[in-house]
Sequence to fold (259 residues):
Amino acid sequence: MLSYQHIYHAGNLADVQKHALLAVMLEYMGQKPKPMSYLETHAARGVYQLDDAAAVKTGEAEAGIAKVAQWFASDHPYKRALTAVQERHGDVAYPGSPAIAQALLRAQDSMQLCELHPQEATALRQAMRGSGAKVHQKDGFEAVMGICPPTPRRGVLLIDPSYEIKDDYKTLPGWIANVHRKWNVGVIALWYPILRDGTHKQMVQALEAKGFPKVLRHEVEFPPAKEGHRMIGSGMFIINAPYGLQAEAQDLTKRFASL
Ligand code: SAM
Fold:
């Protein structure tokens, strides 16, 4: 039973960290003319309207992208994706990760997106119309394992679970190691929450112990969305991280420290 809906959290500070790194990663990969594959295990609906009652209720976007949009210059790829989505879907629209990819991928690139929730998958198909993206309404772990290694081999996988299933923290390191074994050139990026009770730490230690190549681990902390909330920050663990992402990570660290 899936109850998580990203509309409550779209554009929050965790999205800002994840989406800024994703955008810079895709822009960097796009500098070479060779085509690339973009895959997601957990895509959600792609585009959000931040005046939706659910988004307004939590106030997470208000304390997130609405507060920090000026961190990003107009030529920053995250800002370019934000602008592209607002031009297409209106002034209060916010791009989820699939829409960020849509804004930054080129005609020669391909996109495969998994989303298990039927309503989210339907909305995603609609949001991605005309992009050529394949949307799979399937379990993302199973579907992506079947797709890997993708054609073309150059590419990026974003793994962005809702962690509703607590076992995800235990199973992700092994699952990622299997994907990496099948697709050793793939850029594999996992998002995870930084939790007050440290639940994420064992997973991160297990990932570190795997000895993956060119790892970039980036974590930021921020005030919880509500007093007492478990999530106090956001992390990305990236295998085969493109050179150049480190500079963006350092900038984000400084910006989040200023909050
Ligand atoms: N990546 C999105 C973004 O940044 O815009 C947000 C993804 S949201 C955190 C997680 C999504 O995963 C939810 O929409 C949920 O319905 C979906 N989901 C949960 N379990 C799944 C599974 N096993 N396979 C695919 N999707 C799943």
Remarks:
- Strands lie at 37-40, 47-49, 93-95, 110-114, 134-136, 155-159, 187-195, 216-221, 231-239.
- The mean pLDDT is 97.
- The chain is about 40% helix and 20% strand.
- The CA atoms of residues 39 and 119 lie 20 Å apart.
